[in-house]
Queue: 3 jobs
Job 1
Amino acid sequence: MIRFFYFLFLLLLLTKIEDISISAKNINQGAAPPIIDIKPDSFYVSISEGKFLTRNVKVLNRGGEPLYIKSITSSCQCGSSKILSGKVEPLGIGKIQLSVNTEGLYDGNNIVEFVVNSTAINTPTQIKFVIDTTSIDSIDSILQK
């Protein structure tokens, strides 16, 4: 009789452990998906800095699952990018590097947009470079006088 109760106790204990294991799996599956937050998401730059502008950008993952940066595209051939941290852990910080070749950009403000594609729920995300060329135009007009 004691063996029967002991067997019954073990059976109930194993069932309870299995329920706890299933609950833990359900909690992990309910983790918030990755959310990308880019800092800064825009730049205003004067062309007088040189022919190539390069900026590092922080990529924050505000979600509960890892964020993977898949690709970065530019709105023109003058832009290039490099993914410095392709995987960003939850609440972690990654980096990307953006470059713009300003040769051939004239006539005031030029906008170069970069689009970041990732596994985040708010993808794609944009980063803007606003490049002011009016300072170069005014210098050229002064030199011509």
Job 2
Amino acid sequence: MSAQETGDEVMEPRDELQVFRLGGIAEGSVNTDGRVVASSSNSRIATFELRRGESSPELRAQPDCEQILYVMEGECSLSCEAGEFLLKKDQGFLVPADVRYAVSNPANARAVLLLMRTVAPPDEQVSNTPSDLRVKLPLDELSGGEIRAHFELYAMTRHSIGVSFLLMQDWNEAALMRMHAPWEIDGDTLWVTIPQRFAQWYGLERLDDGDYRFVPDGTARTRGFIQFGR
């Protein structure tokens, strides 16, 4: 990352205590290109502005990166697979890893946002490695919505995994862990490969048909649970 000017100093990425100042926003010092106020090898804090009616291009939190958006001035609309959310001043949004989203300013005044990004060190990053365990699920119970490239697994309890093609905001907030899972369709059956991290967390060394059952959730046919045990 190139050096960014913050006030009278030049901010280079460094792993030490950094003091930053968010003053000057009301005077219009923030521009649409953003302003980095603190940066290290594992995190970045910046401010950026959205003018009246302006939208950002589609953004994406990287697989090893979570982002926090916080509205410092005005309001903004955040759109993602989970829906559209209107954020007002002093409200924020935690964007999980690998989620696509976009922000726009629907108001008649400018919006100023604080963007905080954290990245786990390489030796602590969780790789999404598939295991050799698969489950078969009823496709018609999960295809009520759009079939998408990613199939989501949510670790809800020690005995159940939430499953859906959709990013569910309520599950995302309640889950202990969420990961994408490889999938394929064979007739009316959806085959899903369990990620290695899920297999380890649930203590799964093998997985036969009688070891689990599918329980649909709701009537929209978009999500359900893998329940372990007989």
Job 3
Amino acid sequence: MFDEEETKKPADYVIGQNLEDMSVEEIAETIEALQAEISRLEAARKAKSDHLSAAEALFAKPG
């Protein structure tokens, strides 16, 4: 009925946490997750920056 091994959900990573207790596999999974999060953050930053630039252009005083 039950699998002998539970499906592991990667734990949330805390910046600066001790890495000694993490396995090589856990470190690799954490790196992958953090790279995905960096990509998501960069996309959000670009979207907000583009939105801000458009607003500034719209409300810019004619020169």
